[in-house]
Amino acid sequence: MIDNPRIDLLVARHGRTLVIALAVCGVLALAVSGWAVASPETTTTTQVADTERVSTTVGTQAVVESDGLWSEGTVLENEPVYLTNATSTVTLRPETTVPTAESTVGHDVTLRYEATRDDTTFWNETEPLTRQSPTVTDGIARSSVDVDVESVRERLDEIERELAGVGSVDAVVAVETRYDTGTNADSFTIESRIGVTERAFWLDQPVPSDERTHPQHVQVTETEPRTALAGLFALVGTISLAGAWGLGRRQPIDETAARRAVHERRYAEWISRGSIPMWLGEHHIALDTLEDVVDVAIDTSERVVHDRQRGLFAVVTDDVVYYYTDRGLWEETAWPSIDLDDDAGGPEPPSGAPPSAPEAATGVGDGPPADMATDIDPDDEDAWRQL
């Protein structure tokens, strides 16, 4: 237990209120701590659970029509260039990979002729080649369309003659993929320029491809324990209840004694302990507080003497004694008062008889009464014990 007179004074003044407040605070803090343990913090986040992926590649295929570098009937696939003396037809083969067999796929293949100047298109013409909805087999939808390379070259020559050198002419193959996976539906287009000469033809990209991805999002709820909050309130609750228990053990405390102890500690450098004789000084001036006695000591450069037996604080200056006590006047601090009439059990005075004078009790005056020897027995142990 902490020995601090200030705490004692605080407890003496507001002890009951403090105990109740600390107890309530402790109970509430422990309740909050329990709630924090039982109710962890939850956060909901969006996470990618899976990704739907749809991709399309456009392959090429040609069959050798006459013997030469290759034997007739040889199948050429995805070559960077094809010779016109070997084959005059190329087959475009779009293949789309989808995530489920229930998906639907469509392929729209067109051939577009463009006239450009300074990288700006000022004329174009689109020729539809095919529009198919192939069946999905093993996750792949396949379609195909033949392109007559000779007719493409003739159309390019015709457009160039019309332009008469004003711009350049290109042929572009466009494959649009339309799909519906059941959860996502969209479309995208793959384009590649066809290069054609009298001796060969090719695609700028031998196997052009593209894809679309669709992340599948899910809501995930995560729980995180409120460890710090629970620990903090548990600590506060424990300290509060311990404080309430400690203050309860200090009670009851006399406020006057606690205040005097505070003053004693505050003015300890001016107070000395000792014994103050009853006969000291001719004039005795009672002061209201211990602070007043200390002020006198400071003003007179004297020290305060604390007579613990008499409960007296006094400053002696010449023949004047300035003092403070909670027992009353100077004379009342000499020794405890004793009521012999009530405790000794002696005979009461006759009815109407005046009480004995103080001088008779103390032996001062004309002398003891004649019957004193019979009233007080020197061998009476009870009388001596009370004295």
From TrEMBL:
Annotated spans, Disordered: 338-387
Biased composition (Pro residues): 347-357
Composition bias type Acidic residues, residue spans: 374-387
Superkingdom of origin: Archaea
Listed Pfam families: DUF5305
Alphabetical list of InterPro entries matching this protein: DUF5305
Protein name per UniProt: DUF5305 domain-containing protein
Species per Swiss-Prot/TrEMBL record: Halovivax cerinus
